Amino acid sequence: MSTTNSPGERKMVTFSLGQQMFGIDMNALIEIREWEEPTPLPGVAPFIKGVTNLRGTVIPVVGLAERIGWPASKIHSRSCILVVNISGNQCGFLVDEVADIVLIKDEDVQPAPDMETAENVIRGLVQISTRATDGSQGEAGTMVSLLDLNALSLTRQLDFAA
């Protein structure tokens, strides 16, 4: 699947944390890895699960649910790590399950509500059609929160963990 988008469109990788769907820009994704227990590090933030080796490069693995202030994800057979590039740094995010790769139009993205929170890591919301079991587009839609990877502000923790 090509990551080249038409003007005004972008491909997003959607995934779940608990019962909520999230998405990240496909251009930031390096790979999707099966879950494997990372090597723990002492003295790092609790949401940093440890580090893992990605073809000779040590990368931190972050519990994304914990990073956004939710209870830790429970590891199961569909748990995986999304390896992403954030401003030149590689990082792995533990997610509950990858759902799909979807094409969205910029005009369909609604701004995140302006709420008083410590940090806002959601850059927008979009309603997507869900796929029926036969692969066709279903009627019902799912609200997807689009993550702003730069707003996760992992730079200091990433430099320390890696």
Order of helices and strands: EEEEEHEEEEEH
Q: How many domain units?
A: 1
Largest sheet: 5 strands, mixed
The chain-level structural class is: mainly beta
How confident is the prediction overall: mean pLDDT? Answer: 84
CATH class, anyone?
Mainly Beta
CATH topology: OB fold (Dihydrolipoamide Acetyltransferase, E2P)
* Radius of gyration based on Cα positions: 16 Å
Helix content: under 10%
End-to-end distance: 31 Å
Pfam families: CheW
Protein name: Purine-binding chemotaxis protein CheW
Organism: Sphingomonas aerophila
GO biological process, one term: chemotaxis
Architecture overview:
This is Purine-binding chemotaxis protein CheW. This protein has 2 helices and 10 strands. It is mainly beta and about 160 residues long. The protein has one domain (about 10-160): CheA-289, Domain 4 (OB fold (Dihydrolipoamide Acetyltransferase, E2P), Beta Barrel). The strands form 2 sheets. A 5-stranded mixed β-sheet has the order 8-1-2-10-9, with no helix packed on it. Strands 3-6-7-5-4 form a 5-stranded mixed β-sheet. Strand 6 and strand 7 (about 90-95) form a beta hairpin. The longest helix is centred in the C-terminal third of the chain and has 7 residues, at about 155-160. The protein is globular and about 45 Å long.
